[in-house]
Design brief:
CATH class: Alpha Beta
Number of strands: 7
CATH superfamily: Spore Coat Polysaccharide Biosynthesis Protein SpsA, Chain A
Largest sheet: 7 strands, mixed
Helix content: 25-40%
Number of domains: 1
CATH topology: Spore Coat Polysaccharide Biosynthesis Protein SpsA, Chain A
Order of helices and strands: EHEHEHEHEHEHEH
Radius of gyration: 17 Å
Strand content: 15-25%
Strand order of the largest sheet: 3-2-1-4-6-5-7
Shape: globular
Length: 235
């Protein structure tokens, strides 16, 4: 059994090496590979990653131009060789030390997909972020008959076989909604467990904004009425 940790990064020089180090240290009782996909960073992230990719079990994919979080995750999934994949942001908003709890429902055969819910974990959000998240959660539950508590969470963990036959098209942060909606429409049960969450400010490097929120909302609606919805997945 192998865990593939997919880390999309863009201008995360201040945090990317710490995240990688913490991912390496966390015990998961299985082989682990780290795949970082860098979106043409210009702040020194690439230089930091060149040192990290020399460590066995770590692979870095360098994009010539930034294509977005969704495109980076898709490239990471294409390169993954594990049975289980986990998506990890390159910032410090969520904690790799929670991997054992995230993996447990999958390893116990309870579910093939686990989302880490910031809301179940009692996280505090800034007002604008809270409103955007609540709207997207409510819309997803209304349109798809789901019972999700967190759709935009970073921590999405799943057996890679669960995505077989899917085709994803979103390149930006709206990939989060595309993945969640595609799994729901396929009838996959998503197990949610509480996680901790420490939001950072735009001054500290946060990149998602109101435009991304709008695209996420539009994506939830678009996929509901798309004939291709439910077939979204890997290229």
């Amino acid at each position: 059994m192998k865990l593939s940790v997919i880390i999309p990064s863009y201008n995360e020089a201040a945090t990317v090496r710490e995240i990688i180090a913490r991912v390496r240290r966390v015990p998961v009782d299985m082989e682990k590979e780290i795949i970082v996909v860098d979106g043409a960073s210009s702040d020194g992230t690439r230089e930091a990653l060149r040192a990290e990719e020399a460590v066995p079990g770590t692979r870095v994919i360098y994009e010539e131009r930034r294509e977005g979080k969704g495109a980076a995750v898709r490239k990471g999934l294409e390169a993954a060789t594990g049975e289980i994949a986990l998506i990890q942001d390159a910032d410090l908003e969520v904690s790799p030390e929670e991997y054992p709890a995230l993996l447990r429902p999958i390893l116990d055969g309870e579910s093939d997909v686990v989302f880490g819910s910031r809301f179940l974990g009692g996280a505090r959000f800034r007002t604008a972020s809270l409103i955007a998240n609540r709207v997207i959660i409510a819309l997803t539950n209304l349109l798809y008959g789901a019972g999700m508590t967190d759709v935009l969470t970073c921590y999405k963990v799943f057996r890679l076989r669960t995505l077989e036959g899917m085709r994803f098209t979103c390149n930006g942060f709206d990939f989060d909604t595309e993945l969640a909606v595609s799994l729901i429409r396929r009838g996959v049960r998503i197990k949610e467990i509480p996680i901790s969450y420490t939001p950072r400010t735009y001054g500290e490097g946060k990149k998602i904004n109101w435009k991304d929120g709008f695209m996420a909302v539009w994506n939830v609606i678009r996929l509901r009425f798309s004939r291709r919805a439910g077939k979204a997945g890997l290229p």
